[in-house]
Amino acid sequence: MNETIASFDIAEHLEIDADIRDFLRETANNGDVSDFIHALNIASRAKGMGEVAKQAGVTRASLYKSLADGGNPRFETIAKIVESLGCKLVVS
């Protein structure tokens, strides 16, 4: 008997802005920088890369490149992406 294992994509489960906000907050509190950039990628896919790119004022290709594994986005880009996702960066 062959078993099929479905891949799990958390982006499919981030359905509302509050889900995205909670996901990013948890990652920021418990992950490192690369974890947070990866979480931004997931959240952007959940919201729609084209829409996030438009709201952040970057091209879709640039957004994909910035958030790809090994990407090194500038702080300004990260801040724009976070804002386009309906969140803001806070230091406490």
TrEMBL record:
One of its GO terms (molecular function) is DNA binding. Pfam families: dnstrm_HI1420 (PF21716). Signal peptide: none annotated. It comes from the Bacteria. Coiled coil: none annotated. SUPFAM superfamilies: lambda repressor-like DNA-binding domains. NCBIfam families: dnstrm_HI1420 (TIGR02684). This is Addiction module antidote protein. It comes from Crenothrix polyspora.
